[in-house]
Every structure is written in structure tokens, then in C-alpha cells.
Amino acid sequence: MKQINHIPPLQKAVSDAREKGKTIGLVPTMGALHKGHISLINTAEKNGDFIVVSIFVNPTQFNNPDDLARYPRDLVSDLRMLVGHGVEIVFVPAVEEMYPEADTRQFDLSPLDQVMEGKFRPGHFNGVAQIVSRLFEAVQPDRAYFGQKDFQQLAVIRKLVDQLNLDIEIIGCPIIREADGLAMSSRNQLLTPEQRAAAPHIHAVLQKARALKNSRSPRELQAMVKEAINNHPLMQLEYFEIVDDQELKPIVSWDNSANKVGCIAVHLSEIRLIDNIYFH
Ligand code: PAF
After folding, report:
1. Over the stretch 186-199, which tens digit does the pLDDT of each residue have?
2. Which residues line ligand 1 (CB under 6 A)?
């Protein structure tokens, strides 16, 4: 495993691998790696890819400067975690490498960026599109791997690839959970012990909502989830929406034939966690 900090040597290593007949798999991350990231890498390994993992805390996707400042960073532990998983290159660029000049591009991600995360984190998905398009340009992967925990991000990235007409297969990988049900996330390490103990409540409420699907309307489930989260002394609901998994339009009736997914964002004090569940 080789650490590379600049784009030209990255491109050289990737083109050498391609000449040897390898397919290139990119796993973009912001570091603070956990088993969820490792599962993306394992999927790339199963596909036989030459694996490039990028670690870059992308400033343009943070609409809140405090959130950017407190985002966990620990490169030494990240590098240690990557050993033994078939990763060939860890790309760790500085901000100036990815943004030698300010990126003023505005992507048309509508309507996917108008709801849920997009509504509560204005500009977030444009920033994601900026960095992901730059990473795609630098690495030119055959496949790129993203977690389904960031469900809306995955939909946005598929749209981006479509719009830019890129020949990159986007692979969404299942949510990896702690034993108590909490979806793995880099932000979990920011939780206090008390908040961490409370956090599995989010998944438990989603599971309860799914179990009640046959007896409640989507709107009734929305009200149930709101009450169950807001009644918890440490939690405040930002949103819970049941949407179709392609266009992310609200589901008002179970008769709708689309695949339906319930997406949630919850504040535990200043830490914000997201999760989702399919309503099959
Ligand atoms: O999901 C993430 O960690 C980030 O949004 C991504 C895709 C690496 C872009 O910065």
C-alpha cells in the first residue's frame, strides 16, 4: 500500500495498473475510517479491482464551519486500518491539490438535492459533486463504491455520473451496523458515552416504523417516528421522510409501486446522525 499526495503520481500509478489489465476501483472517503469503509473496500477487492482509497475532508460540502472543524481526522489510525485489505493506493491530497482555485461550478442536481439533506444542508450536495467529479477526473476509475447509509448522496452521485456522461459503475454497498443497531459513521466517535448509549434508538424506531407499515399510512408513520424520536430526552428529529428510492419523491400511499425508503436525520445536541431503512 502506497500513500500518494499529488495527482500526477496518482495518475501514473493508475495508468501502470491499467496497462497491466487491472480494473480501477475508487473508494472515496473523508477518513475517520470504520468497518463501513472496510466493507466498501472488501467489495472492491472481491471485484478484483486495483483499489484506490482517497482520504480528503472536503471543505466545500460543509455548510456549517463548526461541523468542518470538528470532523474527526486521524490519518495514522486510518492508514493502520487500511493495511491488509488489498488497498494499492491511499490518495491523501491537501486542499490546494484538489482546489488550486476556488471551485465555482454549480451542478444541476434537482430535484434530488432539494429535499432532506439538501433542504437542511444547503450547498452540501453541490460540494459533494465538486469533489467527487474531481476525484473521478484524477483517478478515472472503472467502479466507485459508496455506502447506502448516505442514501441521498448515492442517488446524487448516480445522477452526476449520468449528467457528466462518465463511464463509471457506481456501486452502492449495504449499511454496516454496530451490534446494537447503530449505523456505522465517522461521526459516531464524536458522541459522548451517554449519547452513544442512546443512539441505537434511531434504528430501533425505524424498525418499529417498518413493522407497523401494514397498519399505518406513510403520514401516520411519519408522526409516530417524530414522536418517538422527540420524546427521547437526548434527541431531536430534523426530518423523517418516506420517499421512492429513485427520485426521492415523498410516498403518500403504500399503493405506489416504487421501492420505498424511510430516511431520517436526528440531532443529539450538535452531532447530527442520519440513517435509513427500506419499507419492502
Ligand atoms: O461520503 C463521504 O465520505 C463523502 O461525502 C465523499 C463521498 C467522500 C465526498 O467527500
Report:
1. 999 999 999 999 99
2. 28-30, 58, 61, 128, 131-132, 150, 153
